[in-house]
Design brief:
It contains twelve helices and no strands. The chain is an all-alpha fold. It is globular and about 55 Å long. The site of protoporphyrin IX containing FE has 23 residues, from helix 2, helix 4, helix 6, helix 9 and helix 11.
Length: 235
């Protein structure tokens, strides 16, 4: 099939799944901003996204998107390396303005995936998974208290720094991925390319800033107002 067998088809899969993941991140970032203003509001959203059939279906869909994006990234990277053959060992003249992010998309993506593992352990495993497994006891009490988990996680400076590093990698990945996806899907010409690069830069900065604001606000609250107890560091 053209979509899976040809190089351009595989790139289309990467682009479409990447754009869908950017949409998810936009929603997730907006949801998290609520935590900056209201505990009740944030936990209400978390409850909506608990173990309901539509939330579980969305999580499964998200898992498929991440898997497709990751698997095709590996396939395309291996394919590119094979096409370059031994020339990767030769001294080659790089085009004057090749973005750093464009050269390191796979490594950036790996950091994003590793960070995602840590993040799912910190939040998803303590919330949706607890509900799905019908775990009883103290774990069940906090299964829809997303605000509590934010306080716990970002009262630990190690986690806060790790999240900020993760968010930096994600920013570079999004910044390049955004315009690159549109280019694969047919946006062409110098003018459109520079417009898309500009939109991508602004968009990814806003999305990442929404996440970073939560990390920074809760870490500062823990340091200076004594909120939460840093228990996440001890776990
Ligand atoms: C300050 C940063 C972040 C906070 C406070 C946060 C918070 C949360 C919370 C509370 C949940 C559990 C929702 C629930 O099960 O009801 C969650 C799930 C999740 N988060 Fe985050 N998140 C952050 C950043 C990110 C980033 C940057 C990504 C992606 C790169 C991400 C991807 C996910 C995914 C994939 C899930 C599972 C979604 C699902 O259950 O459908 N999160 N996050």
């Amino acid at each position: 099939m053209w979509l899976t067998n040809s190089s351009i088809g595989r790139k289309v899969i990467m682009s479409v799944t990447g754009l869908a993941l950017i949409l998810f991140l936009t929603f997730h970032g907006c949801m998290n901003v609520v935590a900056l203003f209201s505990r009740e509001g944030y936990n209400w959203v978390c409850e909506m996204l608990g173990a309901n059939w539509y939330a579980v279906a969305a999580t499964a869909g998200l898992g498929v998107l991440v898997l497709l994006h990751f698997v095709y990234a590996i396939i395309l990277t291996l394919q590119n390396q094979k096409a370059r053959g031994n020339s990767k060992y030769a001294v080659t003249d790089r085009p004057a303005k090749v973005e750093w992010a464009s050269q390191n998309m796979f490594v950036l993506g790996l950091i994003v995936i590793l960070g995602m593992g840590l993040h799912l352990y910190n939040f998803w495993a303590k919330m949706m998974l607890v509900e799905l497994l019908h775990t009883q006891g103290a774990a069940a009490v906090y299964a829809t208290d997303g605000y509590y988990w934010i306080e716990q996680t970002f009262s630990c400076p190690v986690y806060s720094v790790l999240y900020l590093v993760w968010l930096c990698a994600l920013w570079f990945h999004l910044n390049h991925g955004f315009w690159s996806a549109f280019q694969t899907l047919g946006a062409s010409g110098k003018i459109w390319l520079s417009r898309l690069q500009c939109i991508g830069l602004v968009y990814s900065t806003i999305v990442i800033a929404m996440f970073a604001a939560v990390v920074i606000k809760f870490q500062f609250a823990a340091l200076f107002c004594g909120q939460a107890c840093g228990a996440a560091c001890a776990n």
